[in-house]
């Protein structure tokens, strides 16, 4: 190079790093006299790395959960947890991020707190942990009043009180039927009973279910009156 004044500016950072917003770290001016060696030092910020871990209610990894990654109100990425229950995001820059749980595989339900926010700075390596519970388990049991003998073949209508969910179930040989449903409040109505039983005087019960609940509702029936001539 000819003798004179020069400016050296970093244009592209190496892989795994970002160009620093501090101009003193990426742009330098120097004078070369044509004889002496010149040493210039440039500084880069390491790219931000964040790891999200998804756990079930037994603290085991939960694959297949989907998250949106949000910055400044905009979705900048959508990722799904791997077999080890994790998502690792490396190509993010400094700033405030929100990780929003979008969906989880059955029989789990989205967390009560589906969003976590975090401030990420250059060089950070942070971890977020989300946990989930299973959908509540509802057991409907039908027995004969007085003897507690199970009654199979009873049909019940299950309805969400604050939603459109409707589903019919039938008791099995044990007198019970089990199913998993979304958290919420439900109305359970006895629709029909096998002979020689009659529908209960109180054919409807309501129940509230939260994630992780295991609850049972019990209906009792009497046999129809019998006349012998």
Write a concise synopsis of the structure shown.
The chain is mainly β and 229 residues long. 2% of the residues lie in helices and 50% in strands. The chain has one helix at residues 23-26, and strands spanning 4-9, 17-19, 27-32, 44-46, 48-55, 66-71, 74-80, 86-92, 95-103, 115-120, 125-131, 137-144, 155-160, 166-170, 176-180, 184-192, 204-209, 214-221.
What can you tell me about this protein's structure?
Helices cover 2% and strands 50% of the residues. It is mostly beta strands and 229 residues long. A hairpin with a 5-residue loop joins strand 13 (155-160) and strand 14. The mean pLDDT is 88.
Give the helices and strands, then pairings.
Layout: E1 4-9, E2 17-19, H1 23-26, E3 27-32, E4 44-46, E5 48-55, E6 66-71, E7 74-80, E8 86-92, E9 95-103, E10 115-120, E11 125-131, E12 137-144, E13 155-160, E14 166-170, E15 176-180, E16 184-192, E17 204-209, E18 214-221
Parallel strand pairs: 5-11, 12-18
Antiparallel strand pairs: 1-3, 2-4, 5-8, 6-7, 6-9, 9-10, 12-15, 13-14, 13-16, 16-17
**SS-based class:** mainly beta
Q: Total number of helical segments?
A: 1
Q: How many strand elements?
A: 18
Q: What proportion of the residues is helical, as a percent range?
A: under 10%
Main sheet: strand order: 7-6-9-10
Global geometry: rod-shaped
How much of the sequence is in beta strands? over 45%
The span between the termini is: 124 Å
Give the overall pLDDT as a whole number. 88
What Rg, in angstroms, do the CA atoms define? 32 Å
Order of helices and strands: EEHEEEEEEEEEEEEEEEE
Flag low-confidence runs. none
Biggest sheet overview: 4 strands, antiparallel
